[in-house]
Amino acid sequence: MKQKLTPRQQEVLDAIKAMIEQNGWPPTRVELAKHFGFASPNAAQTLLEEIARKGHITITPKVSRGIRIAA
Asked: How far is residue 6 from each of residues 3, 12, 64, measured CA to CA in Å?
């Protein structure tokens, strides 16, 4: 069961969905960091891990564009 996201997590999830729709592939952590103005990709990674933990995405380790929207 998917857990409720914080507003910021929902904003990131929505951006991921939009980037997939626009480009045909998911963003990298670096692209997400740039998009949101984070100081480093680690900030994006932390948010992605929380969104994944809550069941909204899956992340394939060590894959640049390894973000997938959960069914």
From this structure: 10, 10, 25
Q: Which of 59, 41, 51, 56 is nearest to 1 (CA)?
A: 56
Cα separation, 68 vs 70, in Å, equals: 6
- Beta bridge partners, 58, equal 68
pTM for the model: 0.93
The answer to whether 17 touches 69, Cβ cutoff 8 Å, is yes
Summarised one tens digit per residue, pLDDT across range 46-58 is 999 999 999 999 9
Q: Which among 62, 48, 31, 33 has a CA at the least distance from the CA of 23?
A: 31
The H-or-E segment that residue 69 falls in is strand 67-69
